[in-house]
Amino acid sequence: MRAKITYFVLAAVLVVYFVLVGSRGVLLIQEGTPVTIAFGLAVLVLPFIGGWFLWQTTQFARNANRLARELEAEGGLPVDELERTPGGRIVRDSADAVFAKRRAETEESPDDWRSWFRLAVAYHDARDVARARKAMQRAIALRDGRPVRAR
pTM of the predicted model, to two decimals? Predict the structure, then answer.
């Protein structure tokens, strides 16, 4: 719950920032000189890019949470079997062992979104966020019946 609150607070701050930047872009355009119009248009592009990125990130999080709820209802969420340091950090060797198991599971059934979901969690635990995101995107696409590009 704390993560959701943090996400929504940061998203709200970003939206306020986009509005402020956009208003500055409009003010620059209203100046009417070629240079300020060019700068104003360039500044107006930034809130649109940021808004698109925020929308994509929000959709990704909603879809990943939807899959997690579905997998939890089936009793298929991965069990936390990771060793941790006294400070609570995941032991790297433990994460690597779980990752190897999840990768083998995914190789056995590459069209099962559940195995891709669990692989994404294993990637995240191994601190490979980029691959975790790609694996989760693949799980979402498979679950939704969308075509998936070959790896």
Answer: 0.79
